[in-house]
Amino acid sequence: MDKAGEMWRFDGALARVSRMAGMGMLTLRGDLATEAIGGAVSAAVGLAVPQTRRIGFGPQGAVAWMSPDELLLLVPGADRAARQEAMRPPLEGRHHLLADVSDARAVFTVEGPACRDVLAKIMPVDLDPRAFGPGQILRSRAGQVAAAIWMEREERITLLCFRSVAGYMGELLKTSAGESGDPAYFRPEAG
Amino acid sequence: MSVRLKTGGRLIDRSQPRSFRFNGRVLRGYKGDTLASALLASGQTLLGRSFKYHRPRGLVGSGVEEPNGLVALGTGDQLEPNQRTTTTELREGMELRSQNHWPSLGFDIGALNSLAPRLFPAGFYYKTFTWPRSFWKHVYEPIIRRSAGLGPAPDAEARDPDSYEHFHAFVDVLVIGGGLAGLEAARVAGASGARVLLIEQTAHWGGRAAKDEQIVNGSPVDNLVEEIRAELSAMGNVQCRSRTMGVGVYDHGLVLAVENLAENASINDAARQRLWKIRAGQVIVATGALERPLSFAGNDVPGVMLASAIRDYLIDFGVSPGDRTVVVTNNDSAYRTAIALKTHGLDVPAILDARAGGGGALAQEARALGIRVEAGRGIARVLGGRAVRGVAICAQAGEGVVQEEIACDAVAMSGGWSPVVHLWSHCGGKLRWDDAAAAFGPDVDKAPLGADGAPFVSAAGTANGVWGLGAVLADSARVGAEVAARLRREGAAPRSVEIDAPEEAPMEPVWLMPQGAGPKLRAKAFLDFQNDVKVSDVQLAAQEGFASVEHAKRYTTLGMATDQGKLSNINGLAILSDALGQPIPQTGTTTFRPPYAPLTLGVIAGEAHGSLFQPVRETPMQAWHEARGAYCEPVGQWRRPYCYPVGEESHEDAVRREVRAVREGVGMLDASTLGKILVQGPDAGRFLDMLYTGRISTLAIGKCRYGLMCSENGFLMDDGVVARLGPESFLVHTTTGGADHIHAHMEDWLQTEWWDWQVYTANLTEQYAQIVVAGPKARDVLEALGGMDVSEARLPFMTWAEGALGGFDARVFRISFSGELSFEIAVPAGQGQALWDAILKAGADHAITPYGTEALHVLRAERGFIMIGDETDGTVIPQDLGLDWAIARKKDDYIGKRAQARAHMVDPERWTLVGLQTIDGTVLPDGAYAVDAGENENGQRNVQGRVTSSYFSPTLGRGIALGLVRRGPERMGEVLEFPRIGGASAMARIVSPVFYDPEAEATDG
């Protein structure tokens, strides 16, 4: 979602960390196998419902699998009201939950060849390219707080956390990307 | 005396000298030295004093097993006690101090202890300091504490300037140990394509094999090491990390390892250590073996070392342990030390082989070099105190009659080898006794099992109890292939090697030297060097009935020092078994627990220090609060403003001012931390009827209702206001602390119990900033903001409305926790600060006053509103708090209903909510108990109630309190006695809990 704006940027020894603003985020809960949900996702971002742990990208936005009955839609911040309206017809009369969560979250990007190393220092997840790559999303923790990450393309990881811990997350990412060591695990040639 | 030889030392770089200080004296070493090798090269054979007897001690080993060579490293903020010199690489300018001596290393008063060691046998402390009882705290404990501990603790105000980090790795195969076994196992497993991580604790690959100068395929074993290393480098799926020690194996394939980075970079600009948290499908333990000492009198005199350690110092670092070294052994490996010394031009006056039959091919080689080899002999005692002067030799089979004294300045001892089974054992791997090696090794039939019931740890090579280079390579290849097969992969074929190894004679166990040593000799034969445990101590423990190995360990402290008995364990077990007259396997071992070697606290903490110690949650207005000088208090992980002092104002005064502002004018509060959970679906009403004690499903759209949530056990858990947003949509407000756990509580019930109900929830707590505007002038402020109609007619008490307020898209709730006219305004969090600013501006004419959590508490207490966590403590039910009105009795069920019907819950004697008003107007101590007549069975005053909230009420000008009192509401007007700590009792009258505005007129504005 490159349409989002950048609040700040930190060029660390290992990676560039940026805090992004302006990303519209909609939570959609429902039975992911139904036409209602499929239709709503299509109406919002023109994409299909993603498979487990996948995230789909398109010109109108993105849609991420969050749990067996929850999706996260990423749309330009300015469009979120219109997109919600567009989703209502297919959802009409179907049990679901649709909520704007744009303000509840903070978004960061970690960019550079070492982005996997930077995040593997603070997240207990397998970031090996065999296990995690473009088009995938993981929900776990970073440091001591909940976080989700996904990859739109190689060398760029987007991280999502709650707004209230954005200060902590910014410090954590800056520390991991800048002021500590370089594990060089995912790029052994750099070690 | 020890000295650096003119040539040699495969690990040091003589072109790069390094200087360091030991007890203030400048010493020199080379790049590649350990602190131990550099100290030894400088002639420093005396390194410290022992823990109990303050005996002079020098190096025994050359690696992680070292018990004596500990120093205080660094100064000031970087001081670290008990640093192992044998595993610490030398860097320029290091500061070392020896430990556990007073006043100096050379002369130590505590050493007087050892003049009368009979005063300090096993269990001395347990037996001596038990009487009189009162002496323990004031006399014995301070003395023991002063004399205990090895190194000095860093200053309490010291702050470690180094940084540390964690790293999470997920691999198919983790190989621990970079000796030939580990290298070969990694090669075979790596060829299968599996993700392999190989870690080695030292900076060097190849382990012991290289030092034993063995020949493989006609060339030195170093070439084989390089060959395998090159093959591993070529595999993209294999990573190798040196200076990384595996310290613990846990369930589900979790392995902790510590990587030392300090040697790679200057100390302050990168992490010093990295804690690896590795998830491995399979773990291969290739940790080799440790040599055991022999137990003879004076085996702790500086200069007596493990034969393998002497070989290491000689070959790796070019350091001679002394000019004349006597070798004493029960196996062939120590002959290699004698031969190496001799070929380096040093003198070996004798090899004392305790075996009557002597050694194999290596013994012949030694004899050919002109070394005197004595079979069936041992050491009766070592001559010398602060350094070895010689040895008195005797027949191993005898009682120690001295046959001859041989002058020497070093002794190389070998009591055989023990496989390093620690990591195998951490997660439940069992051991078997190997009679031939007289050692415990892994029992391959009882490996640690993973979640699937299949083994997930394998031992390879010497760690697997396999001896000899050829056998080790074959075993490692077998294990590598087996592990690949468990991952449904195919490993590489074993490599074919020709090894030119001398034929070895079998070792013979020697647990005491000489075998018939009398009490005097046994009392100087040390098992545990660091904790000063001798053969006689273990025998005494057995004699006194400590037959269990775990009990004997704790009674004698054998193996309880920082080295965790790496050298003493098996020798101690053997002595205990002998004293108990049972075979060693029957005695068993003590438990091997992680970590294998001590970790720094810094590496455990990782990045979590300073500003990252703990996350602090911030509301959208946090920066404003802090800029305004708010005094904040922790509420969960939030820091909520407690009050906003103005100028020199005290917190107390600030709170009073804020309370008065709300009562008389208007105040504003950041309530963004309150939980906001959206509950939606056809069954949402039914679901909330079960969650709350009251009935929520009947709530009209646009209205709000206060509700209570209880646990299954009936106890009050959370409270708050529910707003009905639509036919199937409710917004649940929780307490600040309840936001996450009430959401989890909801999901728990929905996912496990009522999985077929059509309800979805979403925690929207952080989506909204929420601001309370409260006070008689509150509506004026909202009207000044302009926009939506907030009149009594349009927005009566306990309703909500959406609209534009001052240009913001807002949802306004007409609810009150202060007892005043009050609005709570919610906007998307990103607009929170702008709304806050707008309200401040709109309220300027009314001197709108930001108030904090303490004013909030006072306001609600004045009005008699309960607070979760004050009036509740997990044992209080709503009925105790007079909240029966919030319970829908006619409902068939709600969570907690059944529990609330139990006899104890309906007991009229329960403590129930009342107001408490002191006779003299003072403030009751929070938490104080109301005493009753008589005493309980423990001789304490009976009690009949307690204070749950207590404040000074600025509105009423006196102290007010809420409390729980036995049959409270029935006893209005009674006066209770509340003792104060260290003062006269406070007397308080039972009154209504509603102190202010009992008719609730103010709420209507």
Describe the structure.
The complex is a heterodimer of chains A (191) and B (1005). Chain A has 191 residues and is an alpha+beta fold. Chain A has helices spanning 35-45, 80-91, 115-120, 166-179; strands spanning 5-11, 16-21, 23-29, 55-58, 61-67, 70-76, 97-100, 105-111, 137-142, 145-153, 156-162. Chain A has two domains: 5-21 and 104-180, Gyrase A, domain 2, CATH 3.30.1360.120; 24-102, Heterotetrameric sarcosine oxidase (Alpha-Beta Plaits, 2-Layer Sandwich). A six-stranded antiparallel beta sheet of chain A has the order 1-2-8-11-10-9. Chain A has a five-stranded antiparallel beta sheet with strand order 4-5-6-3-7. In chain A, helix 1 runs antiparallel to helix 2 (80-91). The two termini of chain A are 32 Å apart. Chain B folds into seven domains: 1-157, 2Fe-2S iron-sulphur cluster binding domain, sarcosine oxidase, alpha subunit, N-terminal domain (Ubiquitin-like (UB roll), Roll), CATH 3.10.20.440; 163-289 and 419-486, FAD/NAD(P)-binding domain (3-Layer(bba) Sandwich), CATH 3.50.50.60; 293-415, FAD/NAD(P)-binding domain (3-Layer(bba) Sandwich); 519-582, BFD-like [2Fe-2S]-binding domain (Arc Repressor Mutant, subunit A, Orthogonal Bundle), CATH 1.10.10.1100; 622-672 and 767-859, 2-Layer Sandwich (Gyrase A, domain 2); 675-766, Alpha-Beta Plaits (2-Layer Sandwich); 902-1004, Beta Barrel (Elongation Factor Tu (Ef-tu), domain 3), CATH 2.40.30. Chain B starts with a strand and ends in a 14-residue tail after the last strand. The chains are: A alpha+beta (191), B alpha+beta (1005).
